[in-house]
């Protein structure tokens, strides 16, 4: 009798373990908190209906659907989004962040690239600034901590201009259009999209650099699971055509 009871208990425990190893319920799905910029059109911005939209937003949505995870977007602004990730108040950053060796050295852990962008110089519409040589003695506005800022810093000594740092793209554009600065440096697709939307600036031809890829990023090795998951999903949405549809939606063919 004891053997029969013991055998029954073993069977109950075995069945319990088998059920526990089954597929996860949707409520058990991993939820990630994603930090984003507030205005970085066409990658993230608020549309006329008040919805937060853009290439980054749609790519995240498609990757999450492909990989079966949940997420929460925190639209914080560039500096604040980075700070939130570094303080573990957010898990990852997706905000048009260029993949660079310098950032990797300081602890950024990047995904595979999802968009290649150059940086350029822009000036007030009608300005007589035609190239870098015309910046001698002038003031250039940059958004703090961006590749545009790094690009400007590399040129400042050679072309003898001063740099003023601001916290977001809107402030940077306004400083140029309002005359507080003579030029600014920005990611080329962002600058062109902003000009198309009515910003009274113009890109100076021939000022683009070689550019680099944008990638999602985490700042803690414990969060690398997100990067691995993002890479898998990104590869899948590129393969099935979803990625191309997203890019075409915001940038055209």
For this entry, give a set of tags:
253 residues, alpha/beta, five-stranded mixed sheet, three-stranded parallel sheet, globular
SSE diagram, text form:
Elements: H1 2-20, E1 31-36, E2 45-46, E3 52-53, H2 55-67, E4 70-75, H3 78-86, E5 92-93, H4 101-105, E6 109-110, E7 115-117, E8 119-124, E9 139-143, H5 147-159, E10 162-166, H6 169-177, E11 183-187, H7 188-196, E12 201-203, E13 212-214, E14 217-218, H8 224-239, H9 242-251
Parallel strand pairs: 1-4, 1-5, 9-10, 9-11
Antiparallel strand pairs: 2-3, 6-14, 7-13, 8-11, 8-12
Structure report:
The strands form five sheets. A five-stranded mixed β-sheet has the order 10-9-11-8-12, sandwiched between helices. A three-stranded parallel β-sheet has the order 4-1-5. A two-stranded antiparallel ribbon has the order 2-3. β9 (139-143), α5 and β10 (162-166) form a beta-alpha-beta unit. By secondary structure, the chain is of the alpha/beta class. 41% of the residues lie in helices and 21% in strands.
What is the overall pLDDT average?
A: 89
Number of helices: 9
Radius of gyration: 23 Å
Largest sheet: 5 strands, mixed
Structural class by secondary-structure content:
alpha/beta
Low-confidence runs of at least 5 consecutive residues: 1-27
Give the structure's gist in a few sentences.
The protein is built from nine helices and 14 strands.
